[in-house]
Amino acid sequence: MIKKIVSIYSVIHFIVDLSCAVLVSNLVTQKMGAETDLFIAILIYNFFAFAMQLPIGILADKINKNAVCSAIGCALVAIAFGFANYGIISCLIAGIGNAMFHVGGGIDVLNISDKKATLSGIFVSTGAMGIFLGGKSALIGFDKFYIVVIILLASAILLLCLYDQIKNSVNNSKIKAIKLTKNEWIAIICIFITVCIRSYVGMILAFTWKSEFIFALLSIFGVVLGKMLGGIIGDKIGFDKISISLFISAICFIFSFTNPIIGIIAILLFNMTMPITLICLSNIFDNNKGLAFGLLTLALFVGAVPTFVGYNQGFTKIGLFSITLMSSIILYVALRYYNKSVKFKERRGENEKY
What we know:
Number of helices: 15
Distance between the termini: 37 Å
Structural class: mainly alpha
Number of strands: 0
Helix content: over 70%
Largest sheet: none
Radius of gyration: 20 Å
Shape: globular
Order of helices and strands: HHHHHHHHHHHHHHH
Low-confidence stretches: 350-354
């Protein structure tokens, strides 16, 4: 049953992100003439798709109807296609739909993950491929948008049909007051900063070799595989050791501008920390997984904000090395304090037995 849930959510994650990319890049972009209006529409989409996951996640924790939340998200993205002539409204609806799907799916997957990162790594990985292929839809002249809408509505129906099974598999308890220790606060702040940096680097990471489709596609495979492997390897060797992947990627980035193979390896290593940061926040906010998921996506939006206000120039190899190395150090600190908080809770649990 667990494999079934993760498979369904991972495939629909691909569908939702592909659909949103098709909508924004193929419909909204072409129909909006004024550059300023297009900028506002895309900004609104990103705000509602990422930043709004925090309040939606807090609400979802309370309601605990996660599959329904995801199904409504799919339906809203489908509805957004009907407002394509009104770019800002369309992006707003699609952004809310995207957020609701991710929150509902994210909570369900985290609930069955048993505090491990493997399943969340699989779930988050598929979206990158959806965004990439959806963004390329305009280049091939794709115009069968009704197909996308039908698939989205079918996905919503599938989630609703499986609602009882999925709901019975989760273990949400009642929302409890959040009490954080000093170690947990430090871990949360450092994780938030790390994700902000990851988002910013991901937004402006530009290599000339990515102009060739095959290398661009391989780099996306690097993102997908990196997130999958990050969860799997993190569960086997320990979360704190995963920060080494950022250190190695920092070194690889020095040579990535001229060598696409090394660049793809750097991208893969760079993305391995994604499921680790997610599961650590989820474990800290154990009874508030929607809050944890939303906090992480808020960090993604905050990290992207500089690119919206003009700070979107690519790094030099030294700059890319430096910021990735800094991110590695901050994440290492975060995971050290996370481990301290886990050990403290374990000791307290043992003491409470006697």
